[in-house]
């Protein structure tokens, strides 16, 4: 009870603007706009004053590859921020995200594997941040975060190659919460739940940040960047990691899921764009998409024309204001004598608002009413209300404290108090149908996206950006969160630390070597063996890990295993394509995979893999109408069944592959690294 | 000997070649139709040409293999009429002229809603045994129009669920659900809840499984599969990757169907067809913007109407939007001039806003408005004696003017309803006889043969006739009461308004004069009496000229520089044939349509359609300005030379292909046959708009086929009903604008005559189809069904429209 009382007291202080050290730091980077500053600014907005035009190019993104002797590459995404021209600032290159590509030291992409993703703008929270995050009902950012990163390798955001670990960690965390902490009484329950929720939220915030950067990243087939398929799979994995069981989704589903998520994202963006434009039209306001980064517009601003009158006669605008989530500005007396931020803008003959800096037939002052995210799934999401500091912040605090009350104070459980959750779900459903944005996780994603975009943006009018950053900062209710500007500053330092770790044989290369041997040990292992290994791993609190021995030729074996996996993956797709798969994939491509599979499998290949290969190749053979391909499949099936030397069969298949146009020359097949390895 | 053996070998080779050619050209016995809603030809062509960088193969390998290599592709195939799903599929499915002109239609007299896209009420009524067919099919049945699949017996056809649906296959729904309740699906749902249960995916898989099983059955001669997933997606997004992924699914489906055909007993006698109903105005990077017609009509400038639509505006954000049975939604105006609070009884503007790039507007008859306003004013106790007298006089004059028309109308309606009553009795007698037979036969056998469903269909139709006849009788009673009204009557001051002015009814259609001087309310200061003691018409009422109003609309919020600020492109309405004939004098034949396309006072076209002989149609376009109709209903306009900026933008279109050494303006002013127009304009920005608009506005009496299997009375009744659903105005949106305010379609839309929206897909392969042929000659959806039926050696609805596929 004491913890709760303290928490509430601290929260009240925080909401009232209690000047703790952290908040002072935060204000360093996000100066609040004062009325006098805005008044000064207004004075400069006469018609002769230069408009605060977005004259800078948006941030450009590019990849940079650092190859390491240990057979890994760090593929790092850099954002090039163009500084304001007025200040003659040089363009600034910020490394935002690194992906580790395990190439096994060769240039062949077929055995490459993406593993870790580091979000370089993310640093571990300070002790103070951790302390405040454990205080129940304390909803405020307390610190700008670490000034310098800790020495050593930065903590990876996610391991793409082992997403299941994260699932079990999260599940076991929940189990411990339910079984160990919740029964200890309200103080322990509220404290642990507050910490856990903040931790999960900050994790999600950074997942979304990484997705945001990856979405902007260029892709191509060159070795100096990620391919489209790799980028999409990484985005899908990051997106799935936000769900408790998302890490269990198998790799072959990732690209399909990414396409599906991307389509939903595009659909939401388009619909929200139009919904907002239409609502602005109805309400006599001006809709303008915000161009940040290099992306398609994800945000929009709604402007209010100062000094104008409007009457939407004949229409009821109740629903429109509900969807816009702001109060009717036409009846707001504050706007009659507005002292806040405004811009002098031009209009064309039809009264359309022209882009900033473009001349028109008339001019007038407009003030931003609100900024919205267009990617929230149901409707445009209000992120900044320029007339009300508390509008969107209150929504966040109310929902969070309501949840904390239910789970922390009253200990309502989904199982025993299902009626409460059923009632809440029904209520939320009704509210969402009437235009409320109830999904707090998605709201967090939208907030994260705008936060990242703003941190790297120099295109917006500086005053407007400052104003927007201040509004957005109010949405920050997680003590574990750092200041976006601090994160950007930290990125360069973290990148240096990461490079150091990648070059230090005792650091990242050692970890990679261990994980490679784990991968080898798991190749073709039975379900029973996997369960036993996982059990032993958890029983020993992570000390035990099943690994293959570190023999001199282990990389050759791993290379072969990865090629088998890649070929099986491709041939499974071929088999799934149905009858006559050669129409879709082409005989040479299929034959090449059959040949690679043939060369890579031998008597030492685990039985389960051989059986799987046999099943897949049998399906390909059954579907195919191509005699040559069927004969190749037959040879491989027989070899897999009888144990014929694989090299010989591969030679035969490679020979037959030459009978098709555009097929891979047999000599080339024979000289693949696998063949050499044999 | 060597010579003989060589000669024999050559003869054998020749015979083998001939046999194979004959086999290829043999008349098909079975047709498999893949119906893809919203598949644009431009998108498909582009995608079929593209190469997949991963496989090095064509991006759509199956469609290329089946249709480009082994089949024939109609490169210039267009939707005839407006490019909307319900009308387009009605034409493709029947090969007959348009009877269904929109996605929703309203009967002006009775307020009956024909909601063609809403399947829920149909499924519910089917379960309650109150319906057998979808509303769209009922309309076609009532008009005696056969579906393509109806040309096959009940046992010979397999039809997937679609817009024009006969019956419901419950097992399909049941199995679809079971597919999605598998352990794998549920696990994936836990892992990625954002994906949802995926019922649509389960449904698609189940219908495909049923289709493939039907293909394997040699008894079945007609198989079709309808898919609407591409249309839904393309409305929502214009992202090329997403659209390509959906096309890849379609490609794989075509591959599976082709393989199933090849493995079936009728492989060599099967014709595979892929057809789409319309294109889609999808342009990556450009959002389609919505213009709200309900908002305009709600506003005082638009007449302050209470507006009826088939779905709620912004339905995803309203609880009301969850009600799948809704087909009548009222959006009241808070500024109504004389009907405030009376939106339930007197909604005065009914819209088909499902029209996307086109909307149909039906307004209450302007004279009914005037009479109701006069009655309301006369019931005011504070009216001065002079004004009262003038208002009474005006009411009397209005009633006197309208009475002869109403009486004639009542007589005609009476005659039609009497004829229908006879038809109902005859049908009931026949049904009783059928009942005897029914009880004698096994129900299962009847079910299998489709006779059970046919009997139910008869019963439903009779019930429908009775219900509708009753509603028309009610309307007739009110019409007679109104016709009998005189200014001095007690009814005027004290009668029940609903008894005099039919509620939920629009009355007769408005003519051009009405729409240019539409009465929307009394003047702000009430009635004004002129020096002669009469009502000053101009000062006593508020008027709206809808043509000017619509042409003057501009959007304040238009952030896309490549989209015009003018949301409305042009309006189209019919002109009275007698007045046009009188004004023009000599015509090359019987004038069957006179249309007016207006984009403001100075940019207008008159389109005339004449029947020459039995089956020839000639069309002429006349550029005009300032077209008006006077109170005496006389038309006037100013002739203009051809200039850029006219509706359909033909003069300035570089793709206009005219033959001979002739000036463009001169050619455009001449009479040409429909085929000549089609050849000249189909590549233009508005494609076959010149022809499409004539189909859309075709009078129902010409669209309903001659009575063959239909009695005269039901046919007359159907013509009456079809006539009553014709809107006052068709409104067409400019490029990248649409009218859908139910929910938004930013990805793309259709409905207009823009080529990207009308350019559709028709590809065929298999028995009787030449391989590798690309047909450049333009064809439209009226040619489709007749061609298929001719290929199958079955009677075609319009044999002259069947396309010959023999080598050019």
Give an overview in words.
With 678 residues, chain A is α+β, with helices and mostly antiparallel strands. In chain A, 51% of the residues lie in helices and 11% in strands. In chain A, the strands form two sheets. Chain A has a five-stranded antiparallel sheet with strand order 1-2-3-4-5, with helices on both faces. In chain A, strands 6, 7, 8, 9 and 10 form a five-stranded antiparallel sheet that branches. The longest helix of chain A is centred in the first third of the chain and has 31 residues, at 186-216. Chain A starts with a helix and ends with a helix. In chain A, 42% of the residues are buried. With 808 residues, chain B is an alpha/beta fold. Chain B is built from 29 helices and 27 strands. In chain B, strands 10, 11, 12, 13, 16, 17, 18, 19, 20, 21 and 22 form an eleven-stranded mixed sheet that branches. In chain B, strands 6-7-1-8-25-2-26 form a seven-stranded mixed sheet. Chain B has a three-stranded mixed sheet with strand order 24-3-27. In chain B, a hairpin with a 3-residue loop joins strand 18 (604-612) and strand 19. Chain B is globular, with a radius of gyration of 29 Å. Chain B starts with a helix and ends in a 17-residue tail after the last helix. The relative contact order of chain B is 0.17. Mean pLDDT of chain B is 91; it is low at 12-25. Chains A and B meet through helix 8, strand 6 and helix 18 of A and helix 3, helix 8, helix 11 and strand 9 of B.
Tell me the Rg of chain A in angstroms: 29 Å
Number of helices of chain A: 24
Q: Name the quaternary structure.
A: heterodimer
Low-confidence stretches of chain A: 1-56, 661-678
pLDDT averaged over residues of chain A? 84
Query: What's the gyration radius of chain B in Å?
Result: 29 Å
Residue share in helices of chain A? Answer: 40-55%
What is the end-to-end distance of chain A?
69 Å
Assess the beta-strand content of chain A as a share of residues: 5-15%
Q: How many β-strands of chain A, per DSSP?
A: 10
